[in-house]
Amino acid sequence: MRYVKVRRRGKLVRRPVFRSGLVAFDAATGRVRPGFNAGTADFETVAALALRGSQLVVGGQFTTVGGRRRDNLAVVDAASGRPSVTFTPQPGAVSSRDDADEAGPTVAALLLEGDRLYVGGGFDYIGSGYQPKFAMLPSPSDGGR
Fold first, then answer.
1. What's the rounded Cα separation, in Å, for the pair 3 and 24?
2. pLDDT in tens, 72-83
């Protein structure tokens, strides 16, 4: 999602809520949850989400989440949107590749299964490991937020 103005369907809103990249809604009321602040910078994209308990894994093409540097992959608290301080794999690309995505590295798919996080997308490495297009990482822990 790109930069959006959020309002309730069919309702005139005196004070619209502006969010970039990621918005949380109250499931019961449909209202924007004002305390959730995991937005990305303007014109950055969130492409994939995976939820487990209080953790929301966010993937896409971005450089920040919730005001902290997180390249393309982040874990945030599902209630507050606050980014984890311990989960920082930083997917990236080797720019010299002939078939490199001109827009830069991106995370397009996420799956939390057991004690593993599976990540797919247009990247060459995650952390210090060369893992083009697909990576299997340890599932993020609840600590460090």
1. 14
2. 999 999 999 999
